[in-house]
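User: Structure please.
Assistant: Input sequence and predicted structure:
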Amino acid sequence: MSSKIKNKKSRSPKPSLNLKHK
């Protein structure tokens, strides 16, 4: 559940942040 919420928030606001985190 937490993963989905984090994914949606990271995917909407700043996808770049998600890439850096990975």
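The mean pLDDT is 61.
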